[in-house]
Amino acid sequence: MTLPPPPPTPAVVIHLGNEAITLTGPSNAGKAGMDVGLWAHEETLYSPRGDSAAVRFCWDAVKYHGCRVYLARPGGAVSELKNSDVIYLLWTQDGEYLAGAGANTLRLWNLSGGMRSVVYRTKAGAPGNIERLWLEPNGRGRGDLCVSSTDAVRSDQPGQLRPTLTLSAARYSLPALTRLGLNTVQALDGEAACPAGVRPAPLPAAPTPAAPAH
Q: What percent of the chain has pLDDT over 70?
């Protein structure tokens, strides 16, 4: 019995300025005859500056899924980003950083592929299930990174038609990914607001040396 050929490897054409770059995703070789779990192009996000593009390829097999993100740069440079199994992606407003979120981990890459990460935790200290990722202005240009989650669903009263939700949102500084605040509320629907956040107080300025006496 002759097996059918493997599905094609996904590819997408990226346009950076006058350049057209063909970016090839993970191979589907070895998946002949399969109709689930195949790598496919999921999204392309261009940097606000237009000089970079993040391309996400994903596979899905009902209960399991995975993704990889590639960074395309001028001159045809393409690199796979480290630990890029993420569900959400966004660029910072200045185009210097790419933020991503998996189930409960935030990641931040620079344009050289360097990465830092932090686990998002709820008020109880447990890893939270990230449901949305966005930027909030902070008056400093780049903004802060915010995430939201639904931490618990419960019915407080017998016969309660709509369950009570425990909703949280956290704010992180960029590019340090230092958590600046957490807001947790009880509601029937919606989303917790991103907290204003408290920034560390700046160090006091060094005293000015006294002028020498004459």
A: 88
Q: What is the pTM of this model?
A: 0.84
Q: Which two tokens stand for residue 84?
A: 């890029």
Beta carbons of 123 and 184 less than 8 angstroms apart = yes
Quote the CA–CA distance of 55 and 57 in Å, as a whole number: 7
Say how many C-beta atoms besides its own lie within 10 A of residue 162's C-beta: 8
Torsional class of 79: left (φ above 0), alpha (ψ -120 to 50), beta (otherwise): beta
- Are the C-beta atoms of 109 and 117 separated by less than 8 Å? no
Q: Which amino acid is at 109?
A: W
The C-alpha torsion from 53 through 15 and 18 to 92, rounded to 10°, is -30
Average confidence score pLDDT of the chain: 88
Percent of the chain exceeding pLDDT 90 equals 69
Please state, in angstroms and rounded to a whole number, the distance separating the CA atoms of residues 84 and 100: 8
